[in-house]
Design goal:
294 residues, mainly alpha, DNA polymerase, domain 1, two-stranded parallel ribbon, 16 helices, 3% strand, elongated
């Protein structure tokens, strides 16, 4: 009985056999298609993307060079070295303290040698950091004057010498003689001088609108700060917000910060206290200090 039942499973009609043959043919066809046909996805090529990828190495090199440049030491006035700045330069705590104690007496170092005499830094450290020292131009003019030599007996004496005039004594007519300066710019220079009460550095001419670098070079050739003018200094610890905001380098927002800092921390002792305020023009601190009374 069981054997007959199994045989019954293998009894097919004509239509069933025909269907099985068709199914077998489909299976064989699919196997052949799978074997011979490549089903890998064809990746499209994008010329722009390939171009950017080829430039990636150059971009990485540019970023590396940019990060190196940002870490380089820039020129600075050694009179305004802070604790952190001194530490970054490799100075010891004692050397930094000597400089800060010297500056508390409202004194300034005007050369690398004076800096070493005050701080007692080693010759090796001085040779590393001295090339980055930047002193006010009126200090450099003073050095040049001391080192002046008489060439009256040489062939150079036959050339016409340019006699420099104090910029604070220059008139409108004196300024117009300089190539690149007309009546309008000469008036701007004189107005700037009046606002400040006098120039203390030739670098301040960069704040005059309309003066190109070439014209500033011409001005430095014919004019200089031969001596500091008599300034009506601002009492930084007692001046009102209105009085501070009138000063060219402070403006209202910075003056407001100065008053706030003063009320919370007490009187300013020197310019180092002022440069702690956010937004203070540190790069101009060396000549701003000359307009202030502590």
């Amino acid at each position: 009985m069981a054997v007959n039942t199994i045989k019954d499973y293998f009894k097919f009609t004509r239509e069933q056999r025909k269907g099985l043959m068709i199914l077998f043919g489909i299976i064989v066809t699919l196997q052949l298609v799978y074997y011979f046909v490549d089903f890998n996805v064809i990746q499209k090529k994008y010329p722009d993307k390939e171009k950017w990828l080829s430039l990636q190495s150059e971009i990485d090199i540019a970023k590396f060079e940019s990060s190196n440049k940002s870490s380089r030491t820039h020129s600075f006035n050694p009179n305004f070295i802070s604790d952190y700045k001194g530490y970054k330069l490799g100075m010891s705590v004692q050397e930094i303290d000597r400089l800060l104690a010297f500056r508390k007496n409202n004194k300034f170092v005007n050369s690398a040698k004076e800096f070493q005499d005050v701080t007692k830094v080693s010759d090796s450290l001085l040779n590393i950091i001295a090339p980055y020292f930047k002193f006010p131009d009126w200090v450099n003019r003073k050095k040049d004057f001391k080192e002046y030599k008489d060439f009256s007996n040489t062939a150079f004496a036959k050339k016409e010498k340019i006699v420099q005039t104090d910029i604070n004594l220059a008139t409108k007519e004196d300024l117009i003689k300089i190539f690149g300066i007309g009546e309008a710019i000469s008036v701007r220079i004189l107005n700037q001088k009046e606002k400040l009460g006098g120039f203390v550095s030739m670098e301040q001419l960069k704040d005059v609108w309309g003066l190109s670098p070439e014209v500033i070079i011409n001005l430095n050739t014919h004019f200089a700060i031969t001596k500091l003018p008599n300034l009506n200094k601002i009492d930084i610890n007692n001046a009102s917000l209105k009085e501070l905001s009138r000063f060219f380098y402070f403006k209202y927002d910075l003056a407001k910060q100065i008053v706030k800092y003063r009320s919370m921390n007490g009187d300013f002792k020197n310019i180092e206290d002022l440069i702690k305020i956010n937004g203070f023009p540190v790069e101009k601190a060396n000549f701003i200090a000359l307009y202030l009374d502590f």
